[in-house]
Design a protein that fits this description.
Layout: E1 14-20, E2 24-27, E3 32-46, E4 49-54, E5 57-61, E6 67-82, H1 84-92, E7 97-98, E8 102-104, H2 108-120, H3 125-146, E9 150-151, H4 156-170, H5 178-185, H6 189-200, H7 204-222, H8 228-234, H9 240-251
Antiparallel strand pairs: 1-6, 2-6, 3-4, 3-5, 3-6, 5-8, 7-9
Helix pairs in contact: 1-3, 2-3, 7-8, 7-9
């Protein structure tokens, strides 16, 4: 598993769904992502800023923002993800301004209508995309009616954290200690530890173990000819015990295959 969502980079990619909002681990992509909470309570973290969202509240993750969601209680709402360029035409109408990271939004009837409209064109990709593009304009306009848009923040830290996370996902079987990263990216061990914890809301070691164990789970399902031990080493674990502990912590049970 990579926390860089490659699928969100596909041409004309979009996702618009009304569903239960489950725990979504730290991830990023170039697409814009909006979350509208209809019921329940959830902690949304975007670029290191945390906010508890309840019914009638929403969050906005701009392209390459690092974000995650953690439900505090059962939460339902709408998730909308689309290519940055599809939103850009709307944002340019507001002087290149964008919604704030957190804002109020209560027009769920509108979201439901538009979501159903997009779903009707399941067998017509062009029609689905056109419906979604139109929905973006309507939703952006509705947000602007009740929310003051702000100027985009250009922060080099955003690109740094994305670069580090992408590097980790591409080098799972290599050395990914903070000392190694400090040498690779030219920062001190102490600075990277504080910096990454702000964006990840967990230690770097815990993040890397989660990344590796999810990759291992993918391999367990896709590569039946490989043993658990082979998969554990291929994903960067230095011993079967370390892998088993990390796997059980993440999935609640040990992997089902002999060593």
């Amino acid at each position: 598993m990579s926390f860089y969502e490659i699928r969100a980079e596909e041409k004309n990619y979009f996702h618009f769904q009304h569903r239960e909002i489950l725990t979504t681990l730290t991830h990023f992509h170039s697409s814009v992502e909006l979350l509208f909470v209809e019921s329940g309570e959830i902690e949304s973290t975007i670029d290191g800023e945390k906010q508890i969202l309840r019914a009638g509240e929403a969050s906005f993750a701009d392209g390459f923002s690092v974000h995650s969601y953690a439900p505090i209680q059962k939460t339902f709402g709408f998730v909308l993800v689309g290519a940055k360029e599809d939103f850009q035409a709307c944002f340019s109408a507001f002087g290149e301004k964008v919604p704030p990271k957190f804002f109020h939004f209560e027009n769920f009837r509108l979201l439901s209508t538009l979501c159903e409209l997009c779903a009707k064109n399941r067998k017509n990709p062009i029609g689905r995309y056109e419906s979604f593009a139109g929905s973006i304009k309507i939703i952006t306009g509705e947000i602007a009616e009740n929310t003051e848009f702000i100027h985009r923040k250009t922060d080099k830290q955003y690109s740094l954290v994305c670069e580090i996370l992408r590097y980790a996902s591409e080098h799972l079987n290599g050395e990914l200690s903070l000392l190694t990263l400090a040498k690779r990216f030219g920062y001190s061990h102490e600075y990277l530890s504080r910096f990454l914890h702000r964006y990840l809301s967990e230690s770097w070691c815990a993040y890397v173990n989660r990344l590796r164990v999810r990759k291992a789970d993918d391999l367990l399902k896709a590569s039946p000819h490989l043993s658990v031990l082979e998969i554990a080493y291929a994903c960067g674990f230095d011993s079967p015990n370390t892998f088993y502990r990390a796997y059980k912590k993440e999935f609640g049970a040990p992997p089902r295959r002999n060593l």
